[in-house]
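Page 37, continued from 36.
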C-alpha cells in the first residue's frame, strides 16, 4: 500500500474512532441492532451508564446519523431509538470486534 493511501486510511480510521470509539456507544449500537428501544430500556441494558452519559451518547449518535430518535404517541408521548441504515452498517464491525475479544482478550 502506498504511503498516501496508508495515511488516508489512518486518517479515516481516526475519524471513525472519534465517533464510535467509546464503549457506551458500541453498547448502544449493539443493543439497538436487535430492536428499537426506549431510553429506560437502554439504560437498564447497559450496566453502569448514567442518564446523563446515555443522553450525551445518544445525541452524538443522532448527530452522526447513526441513531434515529422517534416520538410515538400511544397513551402518552414516548421516545424510541432505532439504528439508521448507517448505524446498521456498523453492526458487523461490532460483531467482529466481539469475536476478536472472545478469542484474544482475557478477563
Amino acid at each position: 500500500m502506498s504511503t498516501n493511501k496508508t495515511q488516508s486510511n489512518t486518517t479515516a480510521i481516526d475519524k471513525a474512532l472519534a465517533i464510535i470509539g467509546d464503549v457506551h456507544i458500541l453498547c448502544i449500537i449493539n443493543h439497538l441492532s436487535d430492536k428499537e428501544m426506549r431510553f429506560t430500556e437502554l439504560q437498564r441494558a447497559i450496566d453502569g451508564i448514567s442518564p446523563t452519559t446515555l443522553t450525551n451518547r445518544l445525541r452524538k449518535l443522532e448527530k452522526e446519523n447513526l441513531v434515529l430518535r422517534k416520538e410515538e404517541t400511544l397513551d402518552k408521548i414516548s421516545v424510541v431509538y432505532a439504528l439508521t441504515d448507517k448505524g446498521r452498517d456498523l453492526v458487523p464491525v461490532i460483531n467482529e470486534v466481539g469475536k476478536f475479544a472472545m478469542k484474544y482478550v482475557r478477563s
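The CA atoms of residues 99 and 105 lie 10 Å apart. Flag for discussion at group meeting. The longest helix spans residues 3-20.
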